[in-house]
Amino acid sequence: MKPQSFLSPRAWLLVACALLLICVLAPVLNLWVPEGQVLHLSDYGVALLGKFMCYAICALAMDLIWGFAGILSLGHGLFFALGGYVMGMHLMRQIGREGQYQSTLPDFMVFLDWKTLPWHWQLSDSFLATLVLVLAVPGGLAFVFGYFAFRSRIKGVYFSIITQALTYAAMLLFFRNETGLGGNNGFTDFKRILGQPIHTAQTRMVLFVLSGLALVGCYLLARWLTRSKFGRVLQAVRDAESRLMFCGYSPLPYKLCIWTVSAMMCGLAGALYVPQVGIINPSEMSVANSIEIAVWAAVGGRGSLLGPIAGAFAVNGAKSWLTVSAPEFWLYFLGALFIAVTLFLPQGLAGLVSRFSSLRKAGQA
């Protein structure tokens, strides 16, 4: 059998166009096109698109574990927040003595009468260590949790419930002041990153481009994983796990690997998200946020990779518009959207596009 190519020429063209849009067009429209002109991309637009791209990475991560392995997680908000907290700790250390209390300790620690940094802050001053921990912390937690859950053969709705419980328990823990993680207020008032002021247009554009590159990189990684033998085994786990075990495969390492990779992708998204929005607090790991990630994947289309990315942009675009024009209806809209997609579009937007494409080809034949 002829092996499947990694990307078709048309797909490579789309990737090249995405890179061109992210690395060239957006910076030109924001930094060089004067304000007031039609083509000018505002700082608000840059921040909004950068945030959406971080969400799209989470939707892609959810697609790997739900769309291809058939494991619905309602705890991915936790991994997103952990990556954000690791980056937030580093950014808090970069404030130095410019805080309200002019201390080397973060302001909230001075307020709570802390005298020294807690042990879990010791590596926070190093950007290199932060980059490692952004992946290692959510990945390590996912590995340990996943090992015991998958080894106990917990799956289906039971797995979804315990991931939700894990997220809720972590949120309650992070709300406590004695954890040394900012309590209810979390981290904010960031000043700089790598010595550069964090609120300038140039820094925001760099973060935007990095978010876009991370999204393209995660998509290519996900594409490579799902089109390999590893991906075919994952789909077998989703469709007929018992038959797979009968054929001599142990599903544990495959499920554990994709679960950990998915968590690390969310951690990366959280680390890119925090410097762009300027705050991280325990509400980011709320149960509702984790459910929203599942909604993005469902609306876009599970098992299609590009669908969840489109779903993240579509749902969050609608959220940004509705929370301004009719904030009281946003949650009703989100619930109705999820129900409608589940009942009438089980393959999401990707399935709808595929159906129209098939009808058009049939009409041309």
UniProtKB/TrEMBL annotation:
<dbReference type="Pfam" id="PF02653">
    <property type="entry name" value="BPD_transp_2"/>
</dbReference>
<feature type="transmembrane region" description="Helical">
    <location>
        <begin position="329"/>
        <end position="353"/>
    </location>
</feature>
<dbReference type="InterPro" id="IPR043428">
    <property type="entry name" value="LivM-like"/>
</dbReference>
<feature type="transmembrane region" description="Helical">
    <location>
        <begin position="205"/>
        <end position="222"/>
    </location>
</feature>
<feature type="transmembrane region" description="Helical">
    <location>
        <begin position="44"/>
        <end position="61"/>
    </location>
</feature>
<dbReference type="InterPro" id="IPR001851">
    <property type="entry name" value="ABC_transp_permease"/>
</dbReference>
<dbReference type="InterPro" id="IPR017778">
    <property type="entry name" value="ABC_transptr_urea_perm_UrtC"/>
</dbReference>
<keyword id="KW-0812">Transmembrane</keyword>
<feature type="transmembrane region" description="Helical">
    <location>
        <begin position="68"/>
        <end position="87"/>
    </location>
</feature>
<keyword id="KW-1133">Transmembrane helix</keyword>
<feature type="transmembrane region" description="Helical">
    <location>
        <begin position="127"/>
        <end position="150"/>
    </location>
</feature>
<dbReference type="GO" id="GO:0005886">
    <property type="term" value="C:plasma membrane"/>
</dbReference>
<keyword id="KW-0472">Membrane</keyword>
<feature type="transmembrane region" description="Helical">
    <location>
        <begin position="157"/>
        <end position="175"/>
    </location>
</feature>
<keyword id="KW-1003">Cell membrane</keyword>
<feature type="transmembrane region" description="Helical">
    <location>
        <begin position="252"/>
        <end position="274"/>
    </location>
</feature>
<dbReference type="GO" id="GO:0015658">
    <property type="term" value="F:branched-chain amino acid transmembrane transporter activity"/>
</dbReference>
<feature type="transmembrane region" description="Helical">
    <location>
        <begin position="12"/>
        <end position="32"/>
    </location>
</feature>
<protein>
    <submittedName>
        <fullName>Urea ABC transporter permease subunit UrtC</fullName>
    </submittedName>
</protein>
